[in-house]
Structure prediction request, 1004 residues.
Amino acid sequence: MATLPGQVPTRPARARAQSALTGIDWWLLGAALAVSGFGVYVVKVATEGDVPGDPGYFFTRQVAYALIGLVALFFVLRLDLERLSRYVWTLYAILVASVGVVLVLGSSARGSTRWIEFGPIRLQPSELGKVVIAFVIAVVVVERIKSMDSARLSLLVAGVTALPAGIVFLQPDLGTALVYAAIALAILWVAGQPITHFILFGTVVVGAAVLVLYLMPALGVNVLQPYQVDRLTSFVDSGADRSATGYQLEQSKVAIGSGGAFGKGPSGATQTINDFLPEHHTDFIFAVVAEMFGFLGAGLLIAVYLIIIWRAIVIMRGAPTELERLLAAGITAMFAFEVFVNIGMNVGIMPITGIPLPFMSYGGSHTLTNLVAVGVLLGIARRSRLPDPRGA
Amino acid sequence: MTSFAALALLLFGVLIARLWFLQVIGGGEYQERAEANRLRTVITEAPRGAITDRNGKALVTSREVLNLVAEPQQVGGARSTGALRRLSVALGHPPGYFAAKVRKAQEARPFEPVVLEEETGPELQAYVEERASQLPGISLRAAYVRDYPQGSTAAHVLGYTGPIPAEQEEEYADRGYVGNETVGRAGIEAQYEQYLRGIDGREQVEVDARGQVVGRGVLSRTPAQPGETLRLSIDLKVQKALEVALREEVRGSGVSTGAAGVALDPRTGAVLALASYPTFNPDVFQSGTPREVRRVLTGAGRPLLDRAIAGEYPAASTFKAITAAAALESGLYTPGESINSPGSVTLYKTLFRGFNNLDHGIINLVTALEVSSDTFFYELADRSFRRQGWPFQDWSRKFGLGRPTGLDLTEGESAGLVPDLAYKRRTCDRATDPINCSWRPGDSVNMSIGQGNVLVTPIQMAVAYAAIANGGTVVTPTLGRAVVDQDGRVLRDLVSARASRPLGLKKGNADIIRRGLLRAANGNGGTGTPVFGALPRSAQVAGKTGTAENPSGIDHAWYVGYAPADDPEIVVAVVVERGGQGANAAAPAVCRAMSAYLGFGAARCGTGAKVN
Prediction:
């Protein structure tokens, strides 16, 4: 390649690629890409009949999202987290402001909105916010763990998390708010906060749930939307529930169960193709996998998620700095929580909270966030394997 | 950090276990449910066969209508609940009306479409078509209803249709019914259900969640099979004439509670007309209001009761032909013998009066039938009582009394009653009236003139007189004539298999009775002469009046006769409850039915006389 005048000379492309790939955790990258590719395929076969006249509508978009996510992954991989930590409160302010804007726009649009629209692009700030909140909490904890007593630190983290999580909850997006909480808890746990804090927190959560779901409605105060109460409680006895949520869950179980051991194949998955299973490209995509590929396919998918979590834990353990260790803990918790709650809701053992399945569910912000998170982990892994570039 | 890994392994282990439970253990059940989601059976209703008279004139046909139907699998969700509520309100029902209807129907048959509204009008059809997208699972579906082009004519013969009653569901299931069909519930509709019923067509299709047919579309198909046309032996013009005559007799009398009549072809037993009054319109059971239905079921005069086959009346003087046959055949009376027939006789210290105490002098059997002498037959009864044996009972039974005639309306025909010693023993009160537990002379006397405990139905009397008319064959009356296809070709003959049996009445004896009956309708002293005396020779009637005493005080009027007397083609029996004397109330109705069949002007029928 000829170097044009005025252009900054760059290293040859080959060398650049080589350096980008050195020190990569191939297990993690391979697993994430495999699931993402499989996700794109499942979105394709599940949605071919969904948009009349455009069988590739969701497929082409999901391919684009995955490619954008991949680019972002390699960008984040090289990000200097130490330097970024100086701007932690700026990042936090952007997060709170953007989810706040969505809340305001949503309420003015008379309904729930999770997106900010820039022309044709719709961004869901609460999604990327998962990685941001993990980073913010990790920074807050690392900077204060030695100087602040543990109770005040836990309270500070609770406050820092509660602000954006509360706004997201009001959007209303209970699932994402729960992910924020899971991230915060995981980081505090890995940072070595006393177990009493977690017991206390658990007590408060259970108490709040009882208050919000049962006691306050009994007194005539409804904190949650009726559909949210439905979702949270319908998994307990979906058979008797004829509401939309109960129907969704029932259809999901029928889809999964009818897949049997080996599945009905992409063309025989009538629960999906004939649209009995709603949200089959987003929240209920796991049921599609189970219907099409049976226990074998669904079990394999879960195994690959276990590989991702295994690598995330390994990377966390080998993290070169405490900040990176806590950040890795937050991201690991995010993946584990999302995968478990999503699949759990598909198979009917967890409440329906609107949490998508990482790397599989259709959605731009969501796909981008997961690949960015993988990028963060890969970066940590690489820095733990390579000599410090600043020292070299 | 190991706690992290342990927690992840534990949670994912739970997911795998749950998956195993759902897919490997519960897979079969969920596969069935997925199939139930995907497959829908679309039923195309088959029309019921038509019923015509002997000449092919339509009595009942099937008419296509559009019903408003809800698919149960699709009206479960919240969206449909709203649709059902809107629809209820739009049609002027309470908001929960249709939802309740669906719920109730689903309890009984979860997978069958629920009919919300039958026979929709154009307005409702337009409403539903405009809002099809807002009414998921609700659609208009072609169905058939019974149409009665002749109104209430022959209602008791035709019967009516209705849904399968819950208590008979199993019985119908054995015969291949799903359970929600419309079936014949009474009359010919029920009797010949097997030919009239159409077999609904079935298509299995694959549908999506909105109920739209998708992909491979029709997976299997059984076409609808319309029911076959049933041709009856009924002659519409005779039927109408008889019905009009009965109605006018009842209404004209002012005190009558009902009437019934049967016209047969004495040669074959083919029923030409069978009528009962008061009557009903079979359409009431299909589209009547609950009040209208109640009026038919329990209304004054019991319109649903088919008096022609289920009404039991004392035979009165019409029975004298049977007494005569018994007397001739058992030697109680020798042909040519004359018997003194005063206004009354005292037998066994009891005074038995003749009708109106008329003194007929010394007369033979032919004259006794002509003038309907009671005391003549009392004498025969006295002779009968003194001898061994039961000639009156034996001959009653030979004529077919005391049991159903076997008409092809098997449900609802009464047996009537031929009283005998066993009957008396069965019904007497041993404690207070032991003497009544034996057959007494008075019983024979009363029986000889068709009173006492003798009970007959109009169709029994028609069959008995047919046997006299046709020279001694007891026929089985028949309504169904043939099952025919669209072009009128006979697919199945319903008549040939019907039994008939010889009466065993000697020709000479039969001639005597026929001569008596001819004189009774045409002779100078004939009780029916005022009505039949002016008929053309080709349509001369032979027959007998009857005036039945009954506990309500006002007599029932009877007439049974046949024509033309020398080669009978039609026999008609009519009873008018509380109609008074037979010649006045019943005979004119018989004459008018005969005029419709034989083609003489009804104006030649007289209106009545004063004798029995």
Summary: Chain A has two domains: 26-72+226-386, 79-193. Chain A has 16 helices and two strands. Strands of chain A lie at 116-118, 121-123. Chain A touches chain B through 49 residues (CB under 8 Å).
